[in-house]
Amino acid sequence: MKRIALLLVSGLTLISLAACHKDDGPETPSKQDDVASTDENLAGETVSVGDFKKLFVLNEGQMGTNNATLDFLRASDGMYVWNAYNQMNPEIPDGLGDVGNDIAVADNKIWIVVNNSGIVEVADVKNERHIATVSIPTPRQVVIEGNYAYVTSWNGAYSDYSNPSNSKNPKGVVYKIDTKSYKVIGNVEVGYQPEGLAVSEGKLFVANSGGISSTLPPTYSYDYTVSIIDLTSFKLTRTIEVAPNLKDVFSDGDGTVYVTSLGNYATAHSGVFAINANKPEGAVRILGGSDEDQYHCSVAAIDGTRLFVMGTSDEYNWSATSHKWYLWTVDQGVINDETFAFDGKTPYGLYAFHERLAVADAVDYVNPGTVSLYDLSKGKKLWTVRAGVCPGHFAAWK
C-alpha cells in the first residue's frame, strides 16, 4: 500500500418528460386492499449485509423510458429487493419516473431526485410508500441538513444537438425545501449546471459542471467553479475556481471539503480537489507526486473522513473495449493506493463502510446492472446481485 502525504493549502486561485405523480405537497397514501402495508414479503435475493437497516440503491434507468427504480438491501434477513418503490405504490401508474439521479435518507424518509421528470419524490423508509412530490426543474442532487433539503437544479438547461438554436443555457439554481411542509422556501442562483453539494462549517458547497454550457454560449466551455452559500442567510457568499466539469462534493466532517472533477475528456484529466471549509479561498489538487495525472476519478464515496475514489488511467480512450480500474483513498492528508480487483465493466456508484465497498456497475447503461460487495481488508469480492437499469446511487437507513 502506497502512502503519500498531501499538503492542503488554502488561498490558491485555483430535459422534461413528466411522470404521473400526485400533486405537490404532503399526502396520506390511500389504503388499498391490494397494497401491503409493509415490504417484508417482496421477493429478492439473500446476500450478506452491513451496519444499517436498509441500504437503498437508486437505478437511474434509461432516459426517456420512465424506468427509474428503487432497490434495497435489508439487514434483517439479508434480502436484496428489486423495484421496491413501484411495487409498493401501484396506484402511481408511471412509478418512480424518468432518470433517478440522486438519493438521501433523513428522518425516516427517502428523498429521491428524478431528473427528467422534474421532481423530488419523498417516500417512507419503512415501506417505500409515497409521501410527497416536490417539483423542481431538472433537479440533480440533494443533501439534507437540519429541517431543510437542498437540491441542485440545471434550471431547465438542455442542449438540442439537431437544432442548437432551440437549446437553453441558464445558470443553475439551488432550491431550499422545508422537510416538514415539502414546500420550496428559497433559491439561490449558482454556476452553470450544478451537480453535487455538501455542507461543512455552516456553508453549502456546490459543484458547477457546465455540462451543457460546454457546447453553448456564452462560454462554450465547462464551468470551473464551486459556489459557496451561507446557510444562515441562504445567500451566495463566494465563488472559487477549481477545475473543469465538477461533479460530486463530500464533507469529511473535519473541515475539509472534497470536490471531484471529470475533466474535459481531451486535455484535462479527472481528479479530486480539497477545500479548507473554514477558509475557502481556493482549492488544491490531491496529487500523488509530481505527475498530476496519476490519480484519476470516475466515481467516489466518503466514509467518515476517508474518501474512496475509483478511476482509470485510460479515461481519454472510452472506445476501448475494457478499462483497468483502480481504487485509491485519501484520509486527513494521506493518500493510499488500495488493493482492489474490480471485475465489472462500468463502476457508476460507490458506498463505503468499515473496509467494505459496495460498487454499482452500470454495465452498458441500457440493460440491468449489478451491485457487488467487496471486502477491502481481504481484497476479495463477497457477492454480486442483479440490480435495475443503470444503478448508481446509494443511501443507508441506519
Concise synopsis of the structure shown:
The chain has 398 residues and is mainly beta. It has one helix at residues 84-88; strands at residues 3-5, 25-26, 44-46, 54-59, 69-74, 79-81, 100-106, 109-114, 119-124, 130-135, 139-145, 148-153, 173-178, 184-189, 194-200, 203-208, 225-230, 235-241, 246-251, 256-261, 271-276, 284-285, 299-303, 306-312, 325-331, 334-338, 347-353, 356-361, 368-375, 380-389, 391-397. It starts with a strand and ends with a strand.
Describe the structure in your own words:
The chain is built from one helix and 31 strands. The protein has a five-stranded antiparallel β-sheet, with no helix packed on it. Strands 2-10-9-8-7 form a five-stranded antiparallel β-sheet, with no helix packed on it. It is globular. The N terminus is likely disordered.
What labels describe this entry?
398 residues, mainly beta, Methylamine Dehydrogenase, Chain H, 31 strands, 45% strand
Q: SSE layout and pairings?
A:
Layout: E1 3-5, E2 25-26, E3 44-46, E4 54-59, E5 69-74, E6 79-81, H1 84-88, E7 100-106, E8 109-114, E9 119-124, E10 130-135, E11 139-145, E12 148-153, E13 173-178, E14 184-189, E15 194-200, E16 203-208, E17 225-230, E18 235-241, E19 246-251, E20 256-261, E21 271-276, E22 284-285, E23 299-303, E24 306-312, E25 325-331, E26 334-338, E27 347-353, E28 356-361, E29 368-375, E30 380-389, E31 391-397
Antiparallel strand pairs: 1-26, 2-10, 3-6, 4-5, 4-31, 5-6, 7-8, 8-9, 9-10, 11-12, 12-13, 13-14, 15-16, 16-17, 17-18, 19-20, 20-21, 21-22, 23-24, 24-25, 25-26, 27-28, 28-29, 29-30
